[in-house]
Amino acid sequence: MKSLLFHTDATDLQVKAAQRALMTAGAANITRMSSAGRTLMLVEDSAGLIDIQEFGKMPGVEVAMEASSKNGHVATAENSPIYDSGIEGLTIIAGPCGIETEEQVSAIFARMASEGIRYVRAGAYKPRTSPHDYQGPGEGGLEMASEIARDYGLQLVSEVVDPRDVEFAVQHVAMIQIGTRSMQNFALLKEAGRSGMPVLLKRGMSATVEEWIGAAEHALTAGAETVIFCERGIRTFETSTRNTLDLLGAMALKERTRLRVIADPSHAAGRRSLVAPGALAAIAAGLDGVIVEVHHDPASARSDAAQALPLDDFSVLMEKIRNIREALRI
Ligand code: PEP
Ligand code: MN
Fold first, then answer.
1. Given ligand 1 and candidates 180, 201, 243, 291, which is best to mutate, with the most ligand atoms within 8 Å of its CB?
2. Which of 85, 118, 128, 238 has most Cβ atoms within 10 angstroms of its Cβ?
């Protein structure tokens, strides 16, 4: 199934012209629906004759999507500028991998605030490969980080791993992060969705784009205010980076939704030298932002130290992102 969503001010003639062009191109069946003054056209194309992106350029059409009729929320949900952070039109989220101490959180959030970042990250419940590694501070740490975020006028994004922690977390965060290891934890997706909060949904490290969309549909169906998709690298045969940043998979997802799709170059790269290149490539490709791990003293970071950007490097990255957008006029 493919779809065309028309602008609210699209004329009847424009809608009919698009419909005629689709029929001529070989569409098997077209269903038109209207809601809130907008027309949505669902196009059946079992023979695969239609390049729907071409029809996206027709007058009156706002967006053309490869829409699975099962994933209606993902296909039709609106983007919203309230999730801008750092740079207008982008969602740039940054902060430490894990919450450690008050000094650490304050030092990092202070710099993020001065960089214009609105959404900061910091994990309280860390999913670690080994039970002997730093597990994060849990509830007390989340409370502490949210207070510091509030002092700086920042919104906190933090991962929840256990559905039983959602109720507590939503009192302290502005966005719930679902990690790569939890992307298909449907009980967690539903609980997070039921809270009505926005959900930052990392792609499962072995998940297809279709499975990722299905996970978002779970959270949206349960009531999530929005989903921000995050490509954080997938498992491949390649071992020279921690994961393989699948930028084109993320761009393919953007052809199917207006919801934001951002990249996490930190967990893809696994080491700081490749974080900025990954972030810049993502922005240049047209993704809607990045989430980056930063630390005021990377050598002392208790989790993901090798990929933590020092604060000054983050400031340089912000400047480069601005330059890239200006150069490409995106
Ligand atoms: C994280 O953001 O610190 C994290 C654990 O990410 P992921 O779920 O992508 O591995
Ligand atoms: Mn991390």
1. 180
2. 85
- What is the rounded CA–CA span in Å between residue 41 and residue 32? 5
**In whole angstroms, what is the distance from residue 206 CA to residue 166 CA?**
25
Give the tens place of pLDDT for each residue, 173-195.
999 999 999 999 999 999 999 99
Answer whether 156 contacts ligand 1 (Cβ < 6 A). no
Atom of ligand 1 nearest to the CA of 181: 8
Q: Which residues contact 5 (CB under 8 A, 6 or more apart)?
A: 38, 39, 40, 41, 61, 62, 63, 64, 65, 76
CA distances for 24 relative to 17, 21, 27, angstroms: 11, 5, 7
Q: CA distances (Å), 149 to each of 123, 198, 317, in order?
A: 13, 17, 22
Say yes or no: CB of residue 179 within 6 Å of ligand 1: yes
Q: What is the CA(176)–ligand 1 centre distance, in A?
A: 12
Do 268 and 279 form a contact (C-beta atoms < 8 A)? no
Output DSSP code: residue 330.
-
Over its C-alpha atoms, the chain yields an Rg (Å, rounded) of 20
Q: Taking the model in full, what pTM does it have? A: 0.87
**Topology annotation, domain 81-328:** TIM Barrel (3.20.20)
Domain segments of the chain: what residues? 2-67, 81-328
Ligand 1 pocket check for 214: Cβ under 6 Å: no
| Residue of minimum CA distance from atom 10 in ligand 1 | 180
Q: Render pLDDT for 266-309 as a digit per residue (tens, 0 to 9).
A: 999 999 999 999 999 999 999 999 999 999 999 999 999 999 99
The answer to whether the CB of 295 is under 6 A from ligand 1 is no
